[in-house]
Amino acid sequence: MCDRQDFVAVPPLSGSLTLGMPPAKTAVTVPFAHKTASFGVSNVLDLGSGKGYLARILANGFGLKVCCVDHNRDRLKSSLRVHKLIQQEQVSQTSLGPSGNLHTVAASIENWEEFMDEAARFFRLNTRLGEKELDVAVVGLQLCGDMVYRVIDLVSDCNRPGIRLCEFLVAPCCLHKIVSLRSKAHQASEVCLENIYKDIQEYLVERGFGDVHLGYLNIGYYYIEATRK
Ligand SMILES: C[S@@+](CC[C@H](N)C(=O)[O-])C[C@H]1O[C@@H](n2cnc3c(N)ncnc32)[C@H](O)[C@@H]1O
Questions:
Q1: Of 188, 150, 136, 121, nearest to 48 (Cα)?
Q2: Which atom of ligand 1 is found nearest the CA of 51?
Q3: Where residue 4 falls among pLDDT bands split at 50, 70, 90?
Q4: Residue nearest to atom 1 of ligand 1 (CA)
Q5: pLDDT tens across 118-168, in order?
Q6: Quick one: which atom of ligand 1 is closest to the CA of 28?
Q7: CATH classification of 15-228 is 3.30.390.10, yes or no?
Q8: Ligand 1 center to residue 128 CA distance, Å?
Q9: Candidate of 28, 32, 51, 147 to mutate for ligand 1, largest count of ligand atoms within 8 Å of Cβ
């Protein structure tokens, strides 16, 4: 499928950013965070953000503005709690004030229009007056089963003034839950690991994305990146 090398080497992060994170989670989250930061986009929409392991690294380790969306309120609360602890520690070490660069929205990703209003308001906070369009990277780490296809549909259908969803990065998981393939090219193919990754890439192309690329993340996880034309 693609060359694999377990334990992709990435520069180390401060210990507090991965505090309490199970080792397997750290192994995929840290390289995924580096990949996200490499886009050079300051706003990140983290879909299905869970306990916010990725978000806390992006916000506190890379200084990005992160809006987390998840339908599980308890997981969002946990994200904010850890983010605040990290912020307090950074404030006591640097004498800088907390930056408020992580926001959570309790919503189902299907309620896209609803939460995008809130996300857009958050991204717009403290931006330069007259800045017309904000670039946003949409990411989803360990998106379960066919959630990856739903996210692709939602992003490709989004045409919101003032926001440009320019980068797209996902790492699918629980692929055994996928029962059918979506792209015209692979619809009739067998639903197996190799075909699922090919299908996701082809589906992205059909939905108008460009520069689609599959890469290896770690411990058996792959990421797929794309740009929105
Ligand atoms: C496997 S977890 C991954 C969490 C996180 N991205 C991470 O890597 O730690 C999937 C997350 O997606 C959320 N989720 C699943 N379906 C969703 C939906 N339709 N709308 C919003 N969140 C959803 C779940 O609540 C869960 O937190």
A1: 150
A2: 9
A3: low
A4: 142
A5: 999 999 998 887 778 999 999 999 999 999 999 999 999 999 999 999 999
A6: 8
A7: no
A8: 32
A9: 147
Write the CA distances from 170 to 29, 142, 192, 199, 212, integer angstroms. Answer: 11, 7, 19, 14, 11
Distance 181 CA to ligand 1 centre (A): 21
Amino acid residing at 85? L
* CA 47 to chain CA centroid, nearest Å: 6
Residue 222 three-state SS: strand
Report how far residue 36's alpha carbon sits from residue 28's, in angstroms, rounded to the nearest whole number. 12
Residue percentage of the chain with pLDDT more than 70: 93
Query: 67-114 pLDDT, tens per residue?
Result: 999 999 999 998 888 888 888 777 666 555 556 799 999 999 999 998
| 199-208: burial string, b at 16+ Cβ within 10 Å, e else | bbbbbbeebe
Contact 86, 57 (CB under 8 A): no
> Can you name the residues that pair with 66 across neighbouring β-strands?
44, 102
Percent of the chain with pLDDT over 90: 75
User: Domain ranges in the chain?
Assistant: 15-228
Closest by CA to 217, choosing from 169, 175, 182, 176, is 169
